[in-house]
Design a protein that fits this description.
Blueprint (H helix, E strand, L loop, with lengths): L2 H12 L7 H11 L2 H20 L6 H19 L5 H21 L4 H20 L9 E4 L2 E4 L13 H18 L4 H13 L11
Helix pairs in contact: 1-2, 3-7, 3-8, 4-5, 6-7
Length: 207
């Protein structure tokens, strides 16, 4: 079953013109979870992370390793010139942090990144509550005014709006996944397959 046939059948079912067809739902789920789609997600995640590195927000493993080596050399030099453990303790702490950055997550502070994701979610809520902004439109600030620039991709200024804030959430999640070497795409595939097999309104909760 090709994409066009899947879409046609889903539209018929959604409009009430066709009976439920488990085969078409299975085909749609398989198409959604195809490896190519998730490989594309990995590519987007790597691009988001590289942009953050280019803008100075993350230290790469290579840079952290070079800095750790430099600190280690400084410690050895000072130790051979009469400096004791107490004198070297601050450098030892720096060295340990750099080694942890190399080993764990490119120097990313995971709790801080999670807090920033929370901040982006809060900004999405604020954008939704702003009576001047339609949830499906894009705006830029011009002084005390906001201007609808939905139809102009090249408009100057920081784009704002509900969709843009949700995009910021996605960007932060994806780049954190790359920085911390988390298999986001693979686990997304796993979780979607698990969710598809769960019963309707599982858990018995109101929301």
């Amino acid at each position: 079953m090709n994409d066009r046939e899947i879409i046609r059948r889903l539209l018929e079912i959604g409009a009430g013109d066709g009976v439920r067809d488990d085969a078409v739902f299975a085909a749609a789920r398989a198409r959604l979870a195809s490896p190519d789609d998730f490989d594309s997600l990995d590519a987007v995640a790597r691009a988001a992370y590289q942009t953050a590195c280019d803008k100075g927000w993350h230290r790469t493993r290579e840079a952290a390793a070079a800095e750790a080596a430099s600190v280690r050399l400084a410690m050895l030099f000072l130790a051979t010139h009469g400096y004791g453990a107490d004198d070297l303790a601050p450098l030892a702490d720096v060295h340990a942090r750099l080694l942890r950055a190399v080993d764990l997550a490119d120097g990313v502070d995971i709790p801080a990144e999670l807090a920033l994701i929370h901040e982006e979610v809060s900004e999405a809520l604020q954008a939704y509550r702003d009576p001047r902004m339609h949830p499906r439109r894009c705006y830029v600030s011009r002084g005390d005014e906001i201007v609808d620039v939905t139809d102009g991709m090249g408009a100057a200024g920081k784009p704002e709006g509900l969709a843009l804030e949700l995009v910021d959430v996605l960007i932060r999640v994806l780049k954190l996944g790359v920085a911390a070497r988390l298999p986001i795409a693979a686990e997304l595939r796993r979780k979607m397959a698990y969710n598809a097999a769960r019963p309707a309104r599982h858990g018995g909760k109101r929301l």
